[in-house]
Amino acid sequence: MTAAAVLPLALAACSSGPERPAPFDRTVRVGFKTAAPGMSVQDPNGIFQGFEPRLVAKVLGDAGVPYSSVPLSAQTWADALLDGNTNHNGADVVVADISDTAEREQTFDLAGPYLKTPLGALTLAAHPVAVQRQEDLTPLRVCTIAKTTARALIDNEVKPKVSVDALFPDDCLKALNDGTADVFVSDYLVLRGMAVNVKVNGQAPYAMAEGRFGKVQTLVAALPPGHTSACQWLRGRLDAYVKSQAWATELRSNFAFGPDVSDDNLRQDFQPLISASDNLCAK
Question: Please, what is the angle between helix 51-61 and helix 245-254, to 10°?
């Protein structure tokens, strides 16, 4: 299993305080996606960078919880929480652009949410495609990633001219580059992260279409079933983080929101509400 080194939090882990529920009472294996610029990427040194790794560093680090980082994908994160056999990478908790769905609520303990995002469309900057609303996708060749909310929307509602199926984000970027897809549809923030962070010869090859569409999704941290106490503990810490200035600062930094977008705007568009009525821990 490839994993980044355990963070040097031993001194903090020894600090006094209430006992933490398992698995947060030991070194925690946290799963991140490796190729979602802005959200989470693994650099050449094996270190994860982006909004989600920074969230974990703050939420677990401030609590004195040491952790290691596990590379995962949209195809492997669920297996990693259940038995880890698919790619031999097991995880105790996954923070990897996972949206809350009814099926996942029945399978995992879900803590959060820590972000909300609609869907969006990414196009080539040199050949932009106008997408204002969901219906504009129907005459297009649309690339989506398997086992995602975007794929379900495209298959069940949009039914575009051509549906290009992919396993990884790079597959959809390749489809844009070689002209086999007009747009790449995924979570708006994930695509924005690619548009502002990916550079080729110093230039940004991709651009966001203007429209946002689809049901607004809430992103959650996933734990294996049967960890209700740990889920509640993490949920409380995520709630505090989402309400802090650090949340807005990291969102602005990792997704390149300029001074024309206020913190209030960011919170209105992307901050979820964590209330007693939507507690998904062992729902």
Answer: 160
By the 8 A CB rule, do 216 and 233 touch? no
Per the CB < 8 A criterion, the answer to whether 33 and 190 are in contact is no
Q: Tens place of pLDDT for every residue, the chain, 283 residues?
A: 444 444 433 333 343 346 899 999 999 999 999 988 999 999 999 999 999 999 999 999 999 999 999 999 888 899 999 875 655 568 999 999 998 888 899 999 999 999 999 999 999 999 999 999 999 999 999 999 988 889 999 999 999 999 999 998 899 999 999 999 999 999 999 999 999 999 988 899 999 999 999 889 899 999 999 999 999 999 999 999 999 999 999 999 999 999 999 999 999 999 997 776 677 786 6
Classify residue 43 by burial, with Cβ atoms within 10 Å: 0-12, 13-18, 19+.
exposed
d(CA 59, CA 55): 6
166 Cβ partners below 8 Å, 6+ apart? 143, 144, 145, 146, 172, 175
| φ and ψ of 196, to 5 deg | -95, -15
CA dihedral sign, ordered 109, 113, 118, 121: negative
